[in-house]
Amino acid sequence: MFPTSRLRRLRYHPAVRALVRETRLTPANLILPLFVRPGERVRQPIQSMPGHGQLSPDTLAEEIDQARALGLGGVILFGIPEAKDATGSDATSESGIIAQAIRAAKQAAPDLLVMTDLCCCEYTDHGHCGIIGRSTGRLDVENDPTLELLARQAVTHARAGADVVAPSGMIDGMVGAIRAGLDAAGFSHLPILSYAAKYASAFYGPFREAAESAPQFGDRRGYQMDPAAAAGQAIREIEADLEEGADLIMVKPALAYLDILRQASQRFPGVPLAAYNVSGEYSMVKAAAERGWLDEKAVALECLTAIRRAGASIILSYWAKEAARWLE
Ligand code: PBG
Questions:
Q1: What DSSP string describes 248-276?
Q2: DSSP secondary-structure letter at 44?
Q3: Does a structural domain hold residue 12?
């Protein structure tokens, strides 16, 4: 009791504060998301995400170079094809935009980790994360027919040189189907990072401008999780993916779901845990900072530190490059 115990003793000196600071954030924890579209010398700014743009494979190579020089943990690539169709066929083509992007990235920096977002919504004309049908009585993603498509996408990414594939569609059985597809094609060594607990979140708004992937009708609530669902549902999603062979797991978004991250890290201590600090989490701070209402650097580092403290060792963040510079 006071005055014997004075907690300020652990704070009175900067070196004491540093000594007892247990949460470490380093560039190696951070993964930079990048959007790639066809063309040359393209750097098309994304209005709602200042500092980010859609890149062509050649400009992507420059970003990859910077990511490597800054010591980032890696990048995650999203492809935006010129032509979209009902099944997202560009995503399974060896000459498609994502395959081109992967090859360009690996050529620019063979040692930098290249992950790929594995989903249909960036490639389909309807903007949904799979094949559309009415078997449930509503127009929605048909679960099982989509699985074969995802497995083919995974093999396309693997052949182009991806180091990790990250399925983000919240399709039941996706991890198992992708695992089987990769194994059959000779890629049994390739890890799967599953977006295991992914919520139907309004924080993805700016991303849909970035990836031109807004659903053309309806929403994603038939496959992504309900934000109000009991946390146990997230645990079941993670368990199911681990049983199917997921090597790493993700919770998404991050900031409004730190409770889920914490539970996942306690429940699955041996499984590498990632969090996606999504577009809306980035854009709202950028917007406030532009108005002079917040100190962007301080707020961004506080957010990233909170995500680490909640239990994520891998953070996908649009601040990855800036944060790496701030941490130097
Ligand atoms: C694709 C995908 C999305 C995001 C990552 N992968 C969009 C969505 O589910 O609508 C969102 C990322 C972000 O907001 O930064 N399924």
A1: EEEEESSGGGHHHHHHHHHH-TTS-EEEE
A2: E
A3: no
Cβ(274)–Cβ(250) below 8 Å: yes
CA of 206 to the centre of ligand 1 (A): 9
How is residue 230 written in tokens?
Answer: 């009991």
Report CA-CA distances (Å) from 275 to 42, 248, 254, 307: 29, 11, 6, 7
- pLDDT band per the 50, 70, 90 thresholds, residue 1: confident
Q: How many domains does the chain have?
A: 1
Cβ 314 vs Cβ 29: under 8 Å: yes
Q: 282 in a domain, yes or no? A: yes
Specify whether the CB–CB gap between 55 and 34 falls below 8 A. Answer: yes
Nearest-CA neighbor of 281 among 309, 256, 258, 263? Answer: 256
Decide: pTM greater than 0.90.
Answer: yes
Q: What is the CATH number of the domain that holds 189?
A: 3.20.20.70
- Name the strand (E) or helix (H) holding 307: helix 296-310
Q: In this structure, is residue 121 part of a structural domain? A: yes
Interval 159-213: pLDDT, tens: 999 999 999 999 999 999 999 999 999 999 999 999 999 999 999 999 999 999 8
d(CA 88, CA 98): 12
Out of 77, 165, 201, 213, mutate this one to test ligand 1's pocket (max ligand atoms within 8 Å of CB): namely 213
- Residue closest by Cα to atom 5 of ligand 1: 168
User: The domain containing residue 81 runs over which residues?
Assistant: 22-327
Does residue 6 belong to any structural domain of this protein? no
